[in-house]
């Protein structure tokens, strides 16, 4: 985090009324930076660092200072911006009608003030009728769907309100979004609404992600945003996204006179609507509906963070118009975060499958908004220090629609018998290996990749995977089982499995139900891999940031396992010495990757595990530079493989092409020389033909390269 944030924290102790002009100016500058930082994390990366309530507090503070010092309002003021600019990787879409945010109401007075403000603006008498639509504010991300002649042609995220991201392919995978509308419909119709995920679907999806050792999402909103904003729509298709329609963008003809009427038209076209919704005629009725929804909140299938009120008559909406980032005719009445106080018994450390050390607060169980909470996340080392959370403290726990409860603050920090400051461990509690925190990272990680039980299954799975040792018949289920039974704990164990188990093979067979033949096949598959090429060996170790390409670079540079290991151990001992210099001088290996390699080799447990592994292998082959046939017909050509290949795998085809001097690309462009189309080749082959690129069958390709 930047310094600005620290200084803003310091200043925030002063109430807005007491700020001097200089202080106000400094704090507005700090807040602008801080809020922009959180906007990027939240809107672009779907990975917020702070709770929504904490974020809202910053925005409110900014608004209060601006209200007192209007002359200090900055040109980059957060109160004039919506969201964040589109992220790279997506096509950009300009919104014909801007997509705005909503003003917020928190206290009941904010609500009455909103209604009064609308009346004042419109010059309505106290008793003149004025109605509002009140509907839940679903916690997802807004999306604009464009229909031309009743067909879905474009879908875009809000982005910064003016320009969003083109997510059409992804939105087409959402079942709630009709591809075609039943007539009648205007020639152009933009439907706006919220892409979200049901809480139940979210939990199931996170469980499946955990199962596969993939990234977990903090809450349904981040999961929905992360799933919609995928560059690969086949991933989006597997995510349980849903859509609610609640507004219109560009439309070529008026389709209703009221907001309620718009809802009915949307429903007739097949859209789902935010429910429970109601048409209210006074501030009191709005408050009543808000309280009613609040009471049902835990039972609703999706997360909501408030209730949205919209002036019902469209002509009045048009008269009211907008103020900078939000309409005057609508407001979001937010629910307070659900909080409670309890005692923090202990801080424990969880080690994730990738080695990340996460501090967890073990709490005296407490009911927070209807859910019993006994653990809360403390995020990371910095967060504990920032809040100065210690064992034995009484703390405020919060659930703000988030599934993972959080610690907000300590309430009794000034008690005399308070324990010492919490010291974050520098060793992994699971395996005792050193835990390190790389520069610029907030997370500390265990470096004992090869022996750490918390990481073992994930590491073993990686070790035997296709591009690593490629051991057939050893899938994730078998690894899991062997690990749990204590048969395989480290990579070396795989190679001594037969020796240890052969007399007991019958037992293995009966216990696992694998079948004798399948166990024998497995042993044979393992035997075939007692000799491996150096680059596969390096890749298989699962060192952070050392993927296939980096492993190949290392193999090419050091040639033999002995040379590589010696150099790495040297570099680990002296991170300035000649071995380090050589390592970081390899093109594409920067200090960050070098640091991960050095950390791995600095951990004695890993050296032992490596020695054990070498002892059970027949040979790690030295790196063989690919022999490029001088007259290779594909030398320097760019090739794209698509569809299902039958004579070899995609990785094999790629390696072979590269060894012949070709460059293998992922997508077709005018620069592509050949597209090799296997069975069921789709859009890439079509595109190639359109561009006049030569498309070859698998056989033709084989003939070409001889
Ligand atoms: N934790 C963080 O770091 C962080 C950072 C940035 C923003 N945020 C959170 O994001 C929100 C601010 O973002 P915002 O500008 O999108 O404002 P907002 O979410 O408060 O309100 C606007 C949005 O509400 C949504 N919405 C849901 N139901 C709706 C309905 N029935 N009718 C109309 N709109 C509906 C739309 O997506 C619309 O864009 C706040 O909740 C804030 O706490 C958090
Ligand atoms: Zn460990």
Provide an overview of this structure.
By secondary structure, the chain is of the alpha+beta class. It has 27 helices and 26 strands. The strands form seven sheets. Strands 14, 15, 16, 17, 18, 19 and 20 form a seven-stranded antiparallel β-sheet that branches. The protein has a five-stranded mixed β-sheet with strand order 2-13-10-3-9. A four-stranded antiparallel β-sheet has the order 5-4-7-8. Zinc ion binds next to loops. The site of zinc ion has 9 residues, from loops. Keywords: DNA damage, DNA repair, DNA replication, Ligase, Magnesium, Manganese, Metal-binding, NAD, Zinc. It is an enzyme of class 6 (ligase). Its EC number is 6.5.1.2.
Number of alpha- plus pi-helical segments:
27
What is the terminal-to-terminal distance?
57 Å
User: What's the overall average pLDDT, rounded?
Assistant: 87
Helical fraction:
25-40%
Strand content: 15-25%
Bound molecules: nicotinamide-adenine-dinucleotide, zinc ion
CATH homologous superfamily of the largest domain - what is it?
Answer: DNA ligase/mRNA capping enzyme
Q: How many separate structural domains?
A: 5
Largest sheet features: 7 strands, antiparallel
Assembly type of the chains comes to: single chain
User: In the CATH hierarchy, what is the architecture of the largest domain at level 2?
Assistant: 2-Layer Sandwich
Give the radius of gyration: 30 Å
Category by helix and strand content: alpha+beta
The first-level CATH class of the largest domain is given as Alpha Beta
Binding site for NAD(+): 52-56, 101-102, 135, 158, 194, 310, 334
Binding site for Zn(2+): 428, 431, 452
Cofactor: Mg(2+); Mn(2+)
Keywords: DNA damage, DNA repair, DNA replication, Ligase, Magnesium, Manganese, Metal-binding, NAD, Zinc
């Amino acid at each position: 985090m930047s310094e600005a944030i620290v200084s803003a924290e310091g200043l925030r102790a002063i109430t807005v009324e007491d700020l001097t002009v200089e202080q106000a100016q400094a704090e507005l500058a700090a807040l602008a930076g801080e809020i922009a930082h959180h906007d990027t994390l939240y809107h672009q990366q779907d990975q917020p660092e702070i709770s929504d309530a904490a974020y809202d507090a910053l925005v409110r503070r900014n608004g209060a200072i601006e209200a007192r010092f209007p002359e200090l309002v900055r040109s980059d003021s957060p109160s004039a911006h919506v969201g964040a600019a589109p992220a790279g990787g997506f096509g950009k879409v300009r919104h014909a009608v801007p997509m705005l945010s909503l003003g917020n109401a928190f206290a009941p007075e904010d609500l009455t003030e909103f209604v009064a403000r609308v009346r004042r603006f419109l010059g309505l008498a106290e008793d003149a009728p004025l109605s509002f639509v009140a509907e839940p504010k679903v916690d997802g991300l807004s999306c604009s769907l464009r229909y031309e002649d009743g067909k879905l042609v474009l879908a875009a995220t809000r982005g910064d309100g003016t320009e969003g991201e083109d997510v059409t392919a992804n939105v087409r995978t959402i079942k709630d979004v009709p591809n075609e509308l039943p007539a009648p419909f205007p020639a152009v119709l933009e439907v706006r609404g919220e892409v979200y995920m049901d809480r139940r679907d979210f939990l199931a999806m996170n469980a499946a992600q955990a199962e596969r050792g993939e990234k977990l999402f903090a809450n349904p909103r981040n999961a929905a945003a992360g799933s919609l904003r995928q560059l690969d729509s086949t991933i989006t298709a597997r995510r349980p996204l849903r859509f609610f329609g609640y507004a219109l963008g560009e439309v070529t003809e008026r389709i209703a006179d009221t907001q309620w009427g718009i809802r009915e038209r949307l429903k007739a076209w097949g859209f789902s609507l935010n429910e429970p919704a109601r048409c209210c005629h006074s501030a009191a009725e709005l408050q009543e509906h808000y309280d009613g929804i609040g009471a049902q909140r835990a039972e609703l299938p999706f997360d909501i963070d408030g209730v949205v009120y919209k002036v019902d008559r469209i002509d009045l909406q048009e008269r009211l118009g907008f103020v900078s980032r939000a309409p005057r005719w609508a407001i979001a009445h937010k629910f307070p975060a659900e909080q409670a106080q309890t005692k923090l018994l202990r801080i424990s450390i969880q080690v994730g499958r990738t080695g990340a050390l996460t501090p967890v607060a073990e709490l005296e169980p407490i009911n927070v908004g209807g859910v019993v909470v006994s653990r809360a996340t403390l995020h990371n080392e910095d967060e504990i220090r920032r809040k100065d959370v210690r064992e034995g403290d009484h703390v405020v726990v919060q659930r703000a629609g988030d599934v993972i409860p959080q610690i907000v603050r300590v309430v009794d920090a000034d008690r005399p018998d308070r324990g010492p400051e919490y010291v974050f461990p520098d060793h992994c509690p699971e395996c005792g290996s050193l835990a390190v925190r790389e520069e610029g990272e907030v997370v500390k990680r265990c470096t004992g990749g090869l022996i750490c039980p918390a990481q073992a299954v994930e590491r073993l799975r990686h070790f035997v995977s296709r591009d690593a040792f490629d051991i057939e018949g050893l899938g994730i289920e078998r690894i899991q089982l062997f690990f749990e039974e204590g048969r395989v704990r480290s990579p070396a164990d795989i190679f001594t499995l037969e020796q240890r188990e052969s007399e007991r093979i019958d037992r293995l067979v009966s216990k696992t139900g694998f079948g004798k033949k399948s166990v024998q096949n497995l042993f044979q598959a393992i035997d075939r891999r007692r000799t491996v090429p150096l680059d596969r060996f390096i890749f298989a170790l699962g060192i952070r940031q050392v993927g296939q390409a980096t492993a190949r670079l290392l193999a090419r540079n050091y040639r033999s396992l002995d040379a590589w290991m010696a150099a790495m151990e040297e570099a680990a001992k002296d991170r300035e010495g000649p071995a380090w210099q050589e390592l970081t001088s390899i093109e594409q290996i920067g200090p960050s990757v070098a640091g991960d390699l050095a950390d791995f080799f600095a951990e004695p447990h890993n050296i032992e595990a490596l020695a054990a592994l070498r002892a059970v292998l027949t040979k790690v082959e030295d790196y063989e530079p690919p022999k490029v046939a001088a007259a290779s017909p594909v030398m320097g050509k760019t090739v794209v493989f698509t569809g299902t290949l039958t004579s070899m795998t995609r990785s094999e085809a790629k390696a072979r092409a590269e060894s012949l001097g070709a460059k293998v690309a992922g997508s077709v462009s005018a620069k592509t020389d050949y597209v090799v189309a296997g069975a069921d080749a789709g859009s890439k082959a079509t595109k190639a033909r359109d561009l006049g690129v030569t498309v070859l069958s698998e056989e033709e390709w084989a003939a070409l390269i001889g």
